[in-house]
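Q: Please design a sequence for this.
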C-alpha cells in the first residue's frame, strides 16, 4: 500500500456511497447519531467498522493498544463524556481481539522502555499468576483483558455519573475465523459474573 492506494481507495469509497445515494455526503455532514461507543485495540487488523461492516455514523470509536480503560486517560474520559452526554449512545462496546500483541507483551513481561508508559496499564489488566489453576492461553488472556476493562468502565467516574441505562458489552474478535464473539451478559460463567460484579 502506498499513497496512491490511499487516494484510489477513497475514490472507490465515495463512488460506492454516491452510487447508492447522490446526496449521501450531504446527509452525512448534517450530524452523527451513533448507538455505539466502541473501545478497541489499535491493531491494524481489527477495525470495528471494518469487521462489522458498519456504515459511517454508527460507531463513535476510541482506540488504544490493548483496548484499555485507564481512569487518568483524559482523551478517553472526554470521549466517554461526549458519547454519553451529547451523543447519548445506547451501548459501550469493549472490543478486544485474539493474538493481541499488547496483551501478549504484558503477559510476557516485556520491558522495552519505549512501551512501558502504556504497557504498565495492560500489565495491570492481566490475571494474577498462580491465583487460579486456569491455563492462560492467548485467547483466554484477551477475553480476560476485555472483562477487566468492562469492570473498570463500570467504575469510571464519567460512566458512574452519566452512564445510567447504557449497557456495557464485551466482545472478542477472533482473527483466526473472523468471528466477533459478543459476550451475552445473560450467558456469563459463574467466574465471569463474579468478576464483573453481576
Ligand atoms: Zn491488540
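A: Design:
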Amino acid at each position: 500500500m502506498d499513497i496512491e492506494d490511499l487516494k484510489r481507495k477513497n475514490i472507490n469509497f465515495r463512488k460506492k456511497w454516491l452510487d447508492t445515494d447522490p446526496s449521501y455526503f450531504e446527509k452525512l455532514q448534517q450530524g452523527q447519531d451513533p448507538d455505539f461507543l466502541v473501545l478497541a485495540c489499535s491493531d491494524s487488523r481489527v477495525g470495528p467498522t471494518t469487521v462489522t461492516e458498519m456504515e459511517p455514523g454508527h460507531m463513535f470509536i476510541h482506540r488504544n493498544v490493548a483496548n484499555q480503560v485507564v481512569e487518568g486517560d483524559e482523551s478517553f474520559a472526554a470521549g466517554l463524556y461526549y458519547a454519553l452526554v451529547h451523543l447519548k449512545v445506547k451501548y459501550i462496546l469493549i472490543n478486544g481481539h485474539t493474538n493481541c500483541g499488547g496483551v501478549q507483551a504484558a503477559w510476557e513481561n516485556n520491558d522495552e522502555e519505549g512501551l512501558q508508559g502504556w504497557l504498565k496499564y495492560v500489565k495491570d489488566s492481566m490475571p494474577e499468576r498462580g491465583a487460579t489453576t486456569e491455563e492462560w492461553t492467548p485467547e483466554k488472556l484477551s477475553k480476560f483483558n476485555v472483562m477487566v476493562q468492562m469492570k473498570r468502565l463500570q467504575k469510571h467516574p464519567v460512566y458512574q455519573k452519566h452512564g445510567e441505562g447504557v449497557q456495557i458489552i464485551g466482545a472478542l474478535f477472533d482473527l483466526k475465523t473472523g468471528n466477533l464473539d459478543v459476550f451475552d451478559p445473560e450467558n456469563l460463567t459463574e467466574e465471569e459474573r463474579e468478576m464483573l460484579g453481576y
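Q: Thanks. Anything notable?
A: The chain has two domains: 1-30, 32-196. The mean pLDDT is 94.
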